[in-house]
Design goal:
heterodimer; A: about 450 residues; alpha/beta; Anaerobic Ribonucleotide-triphosphate Reductase Large Chain; 12-stranded mixed β-sheet; two-stranded antiparallel ribbon; 15 helices; about 15% strand; B: about 190 residues; alpha+beta; Alpha-Beta Plaits; 4-stranded antiparallel β-sheet; 6 helices; 8 strands
Chain lengths: ~450, ~190
């Protein structure tokens, strides 16, 4: 017999606190499809994806119905295209990108990720073709996401790749100038990218992964916020160690709900279950915001002094609660602070409370990084490269994932609004203090060596 | 027929006890059963508005006349106004055991009204869904909202979509917000 608290507590999370599964992502390996024939390659891609993912959406909806917890997004991640499609020219890779997009549409998933390259130690031929193909690939498709890992703690930072990606971002923005540089919202530049991320734009299926796997991303900022609000109403003098305890308990519940659904989907699709990604992922809706948690904790807004400490507490407590709930934790597993995708964070940025510098500081204690940050359209590639390099350094030195998803919005300046639509939201363009002072350093090129932290053996 | 059943000699019985709640009911019933050489194999009790209802499954060391047991119980508790009901257990298999089912939890939330339970349970009966636990008048912060929790076993063979739809439609006519969820989600979320 269930207790009334167990039943009502779960219902409350669902009805009033935005508890859902943010994404179920089916990883599909493409390594065995490699061929030098690009037409055959595209046919194989489509056949593999439509074959393996044909029932993904239906199964997710069915399982969501049974447990009463909706699976909001259904997605696919594939092996890094720079490896699978290494023999091809950039033109052929654009066609492969379109094939991936068509396959994603055919099986009705929101996004397909894996138009990706891993170049932390150097750029191979396939990597160069893929990066060259990225702007057009992300412009001529609607559901495709790309990523590039340019740094790891073990290898250091490939600064040539950082600059190349910065230029790629500028080109992608120019190609989608009529949509505020939307292509850049589908491109993440990473340090220490995990192989099993279910979230976009970083999702791809790593080389150490099986033929197919289900990875799941939980959500839950609304649930954490409400739990804290309730506790604070009951006790106005709640201390921060008690706050941590409440977040841990809430993260436990959210993770358990997610894992139950992920395992059931995997069972029905007859593929192994991979990981639960414990990230608190916001949406541009009131009540489903990481930014609002800062306010519940007594800060006037995210970005106020104390924000980094608050985020460190939140991120740590989420991981502790989630790690206790599941033995299969992976992906990013941390709190997201994507500017345009979180209504409250977007407002703090618009009001000038949250600056690029503070945002960078915040990313040193959470996943994932400078995420969905709209910048002035005239930001140079070298300045973008400088911002990316700083973010990569935070990841490399702290042995954690960091990323930059930057959108230099063509024709717009600081204070203007950029609109990306849907889950990607909208954002006020942030100024870049000290811009145009990075060129000489960035053009030195080469590799920033791996730090001492890499010598762990 | 009734008489022949009551004179039944058996070793296993279900005893149900009802009455006004007070300390000592279980102690005295179980004490008497022990003195009669009856072992309690299973038991359950509940309280509702100060009334006690308990069920005991007992096995006797020797053959037991159901009549005799019933009389002993009634005689012993005359002054306490307890009502006893006994029934022999002949067939050990449960009637529902052969049907494959999945455990679900139904909740309804909304204003209280006459016919609420009847309205929902009519649908359950139509689909041969068995109720294993039912609670009404569940306390919530909003006093105007009446919450009911049904734990049910849903047969695997029925069309679950039709069942869900029928419940939603009925809940709508009753002005209730209804949810139907597999039981596992509640355990997963709340239990370590």
């Amino acid at each position: 017999m269930l207790t009334e608290k167990e039943v009502l507590g779960t219902l409350e999370m669902l009805r009033n606190e935005h508890l859902d599964v943010r994404t179920v992502t089916l990883g599909i390996s493409l390594f065995d499809l490699a061929t030098h024939d690009s037409v055959l390659f595209r046919d194989r891609l489509k056949a593999r994806i439509t074959g393996m993912a044909s029932s993904l959406v239906d199964v997710c909806n069915e399982v969501g119905d049974i447990y009463g917890i909706p699976v909001v997004n259904k997605r696919i991640s594939v092996s890094p295209m720079a490896v699978v499609g290494a023999p091809f020219s950039s033109r052929e890779l654009v066609l492969a990108a379109m094939a991936l997009d068509q396959a994603a549409q055919a099986v009705n998933v929101d996004f397909i990720g894996g138009f990706s390259a891993l170049v932390e130690k150097g750029l191979a031929r396939g990597d160069l073709s893929l990066i060259e193909a990225m702007p057009e690939a992300l412009t001529s498709t609607s559901r495709l996401c790309g990523s590039c890992n340019v740094a790891t703690t073990a290898a250091g930072i490939n600064m040539d790749a950082v600059l190349l990606l910065a230029k790629t971002i500028k080109t992608a923005a120019a190609l989608t100038a009529d949509r505020d540089g939307l292509a850049c919202a589908k491109l993440g530049v990473f340090a220490n990218i995990p192989q099993d991320v279910p979230f976009m734009a970083g999702a791809y299926l790593g080389v150490g992964e099986p033929n197919a796997v289900i990875n799941l991303g939980v959500s839950g900022p609304g649930v954490v916020k409400k739990a804290l609000q309730r506790a604070m109403q009951a006790d106005a003098h709640l201390s921060l160690d008690e706050v941590s305890q409440i977040i841990k308990r809430t993260a436990f519940k959210v993770t358990r709900a997610g894992e139950l659904i992920g395992r059931e989907v995997a069972k029905r699709l007859n593929v192994p279950f991979g990981v639960v990604d414990l990230s608190l992922a916001p949406t541009p809706n009131v009540g489903d915001s990481v930014g609002e948690i800062f306010q519940v904790l007594g800060l006037s807004h995210i970005g106020a002094p104390g924000s980094t400490a608050a985020l460190a507490l939140l991120n740590d407590a989420v991981k502790k609660g989630g790690a206790f709930a599941s033995s299969s934790v992976g992906g990013f597993s941390g709190a997201f602070i994507p500017v345009s995708e979180d209504l409250n964070i977007a407002e703090a940025a618009a009001a000038g409370h949250l600056t690029l510098h503070k945002l960078e500081a915040l990313t040193s204690v959470c996943s994932v990084g400078l995420d969905m940050v709209a910048l002035p359209g005239d930001t140079s590639a070298e300045t973008l490269a400088g911002i990316i390099a700083d973010e990569m350094a935070i990841g490399v030195i702290n042995r954690k994932t960091t990323a930059a998803r930057l959108i230099p919005v063509p024709g717009k300046k600081a204070g203007d609004k950029a609109y990306f639509g849907g889950l990607l939201g909208e954002a006020t363009i942030m100024p870049v203090p000290g811009a145009a002072g990075s060129e000489k350093f960035i053009t030195l090129g080469g590799r920033i060596p791996a730090p001492l932290q890499s010598l762990g053996n | 027929m009734q008489q022949s059943q009551r004179n039944h000699e058996t070793r296993k019985l279900v005893i149900a006890v009802f009455g006004r709640d007070r300390p000592g009911i279980v102690a005295r019933v179980s004490g008497l059963l022990a003195r009669m050489g009856c072992n309690i194999e299973d038991a359950s009790q509940t309280l509702l508005h100060g009334r006690f209802a308990g069920m005991f499954v007992v096995r006797s060391m020797k053959t037991l006349a159901q009549d005799h047991l019933q009389q002993r119980l009634e005689k012993n508790f005359q002054e306490q106004e307890l009502i006893f009901w006994t029934s022999p257990v002949e067939d050990e298999t449960m009637p529902m055991a052969s049907v494959a089912t999945a455990p679900f939890v139904i909740t309804t939330t909304g204003p209280d009204q006459v016919g609420l339970v009847a309205g929902i349970t009519e649908i359950l009966a139509q689909f041969e869904v068995n109720i294993t636990d039912l609670r009404a008048n569940v306390k919530t912060e909003d006093a105007s909202q009446w919450v009911m929790i049904y734990e049910v076993d849903v047969p695997e063979r029925i069309d679950r979509k039709q069942f869900r739809q029928a419940l939603y439609t009925r809940a709508e006519t009753l002005g209730q917000q209804l949810s139907l969820q597999h039981r596992d989600i509640f355990e997963a979320v709340h239990r370590v």
